[in-house]
Amino acid sequence: GDLFGLGNFGVNLVRLPPGAASSLRHAHRTQDEFVYVLEGHPLLRTDAGETPLAPGMCAGFKAGTGDAHCLVNRSAADAIYLEVGDRSPGDGVSYPEDDLTAVMGADGKWRYSRKDGTPL
Question: What does the pLDDT read at residue 63?
């Protein structure tokens, strides 16, 4: 979205190589996310388990549900997808499998800490 001056949502074209993950499994407090698979076969990991995705498939992640997600590529080829997310200020992110939390400050910058509040 930055390339076009879009401020309310971001759009990224992501190339996920074999063996890679899109991120740590996480859940947003205020920002919705959406992915649309263009090439390859990534696996969607959520609280419900793993779901194989293929070109033409999409997934959405509603903010505030606590359902953590990420994509992983266990195939032998790159997975390419569009990632779209809103840019609501004051977002917070939880990482259920890791000792990590993140909060977006008023300046739009992310601040990371351990779950006990210790800054990183």
Answer: 95
- Residue 93's DSSP bridge partners are 28, 102
Amino acid identity of 55? P
Contact (CB, 8 A) for 28 and 86: no
When pLDDT is cut at 50, 70 and 90, the band that residue 91 belongs to is very high
Q: Which CATH number fits domain 2-88: 3.40.50.2300, 2.60.120.10, 3.60.15.10, 2.60.40.2550?
A: 2.60.120.10
Query: Is residue 112 within 8 Å of 102, Cβ to Cβ?
Result: yes
* Residue 118, token pair as written in the block: 């210790």
pLDDT tens-digit series, residues 4-43: 888 889 999 999 999 999 999 999 999 999 999 999 999 9
- Show the CA angle centred on residue 101, arms to residues 112 and 26, nearest 5°: 120
d(CA 64, CA 37): 24
CA neighbor of 75 nearest in space, from 37, 40, 35: 40
pLDDT of residue 2: 79
Structure tokens at 65: 């549900």
